[in-house]
Amino acid sequence: MGLVLRKYQRDAADAPYGYWEKKPQGSPLIVLPTGGGKSLVLGTICQEFIGSEPTTRMIMATHVKELVAQNFAELLGIWPFAPAGVYAASLKRKEVHNQITFGSIQSMFRAAHKFGSIDVLLIDEAHLVPPDEATMYGKFIAALREINPKMLILGLTATPYRIDSGLLTEGDDALFDDIIYEITIKELIDLGYLCPLVSKATQTVFDLKGVGRSGGDFKPGALQAAVDKHPITEAAVKEVIAFANNNEHPRRSWLFFCSGVDHALHVRDEVRRHGYSCEAIHGETDPGDRDRWIEEFKAGKITALTNANVLTTGFNAPRVDLLAMLRPTESTALYVQMVGRGTRCMGKDIHESIRNGKADCLILDFSGNVRRHGPVDRVTVRKPGKGAGEAPVKECPECHSLIFAGLRECPDCGHIFERDVEKNIKTTADAVPILSTSKPNWVKVNRRTFYRHDKPGGTPSIRVEYMCGFTAHKEWICPEHQGYARMKFEKWWREHGGGDDAPFSIAATMAAVGNKVLRETTEIMIRANGRHYEVIGRKLGAPGVLTQDNFVSLQPSREEIVAQNYELNGKPEEAARYRAQVAARASANDNKCPTMPGTNRAPAAKASMPGHTKPVTQLRSSAPWHAKADADVFAGTWGRHDLDDDIPF
Question: What would the pLDDT profile of 375-389 be if each residue is shown by its tens digit?
Fold first, then answer.
């Protein structure tokens, strides 16, 4: 029985014929995600094209030997006696007289005349074709069309865009005219043909201040110098190992993307130092060692591989269930290609993959790439001529209004945008969803905090912030609003044990919270929505059910994490200065506040350092500079000194 294509593969293989009937000289593009079966679609097109036109001669060109061998093997798998050969010096084969030739562009571009008249040129990884006619692809195509001006061109890729020119079909010098078939990563995950991706916040971050850009991406030397620092490498590897050894979801096969050859070697050494088998693969690796290590990694004999700009395309390792991005990039295509290494199932579909031990792939984004480009199924692609900077306007992901880029809150719907991710020091790395939508997930709440939120020219509200490990999730309640927002608040108030008489002011709400009227939140259900998570459910306990022991002994304070990041980035003096400022501020607050609001105990002497016991439910008792509120509300034990609206006191 012959191989039966999946429906989307069948549709992709059929798409070129109808297109060429309408546009005989057009050059179309098929977009299939990594793991979607591009090799199988390519093989099917070759077999069926020659089946309908027996004299057709075809070339399948790509840039790495792994893809040449993989595509050739896939064709022989569905057509064992195919009239096909290989032209690639790296595979020690240069065959030119076959009806179908699988070759590397590096070997073929000077030998176009040897192949004679070619009817169809297929290009795998088409996003790597530069628009410049002086490049290898440009010279090869020009030489083939001198022999046969009517030669057809078909491209296949998982990423139909380039870093410097946007979509492959845009621009005056674009090689491809139209995308004739496309299916997304999210669609294939929903169909069960690709493995789901999950992401977790990481504490280790990179300081990219001063790293220049060249050709639309970070300068390689400056990037490696900023990232390849032993304290940072050590911290990142420790986090990877901690996540990999999680009892609930242990990870068996780890793939690291590094920022350079030296960085890949140093990460390898650090992994080995912790007792795990690991090898580093880069452009200078001996070909024999490279092939052997990759095969051992695929077989599970090696736990981890680090690599520098090598294993982004043509690398097929379904066992990968943990992917650590230690390579910041401005290239959307490179980002998608890296993440795609973890989407393959260990079997024909997700059900078989789960039985084989892989239910999902964990993405640890130390480099901020998810924030930089967006969820992998909804990436932001720059258009030609638009430059590398962000536009002065942005689109609200909730109501789709175009607003000024500097606003943190949408004036139409109240959506809150995340802060600038290029801050030099952050408490944790990005906790941005790797997919734009995800299965709702329950997470434990370590602390719940209420903040007054003032909107210039608008009605104030209260931001409820849930600390879940190192990640903060937020929602807004609106006691002073009218209509739907007020109805939502009344429902929220009843669910939390406040009764039917929900307060009508911020002051009354804050007072009730301080008197422990409301039930505590023990867990929240979150769901990815675009670049952010939203709170869609809560599990509640009795009032005051969370104790100090639930959270303070498990993690350092936010301020201490900031100080530790200074140290990780080689700035111990800055760390000491920051700790001194925190201690001075805490001491000043202690002198003004003999007891904590709503409690009978005095605050600790160093309110922001590790080990300090904070009240579980904290209230902001000082107003921002622009707030217009009853003076009695803010004249309490904290005085009138304004505190940072985003830092708990």
Answer: 777 666 655 444 444
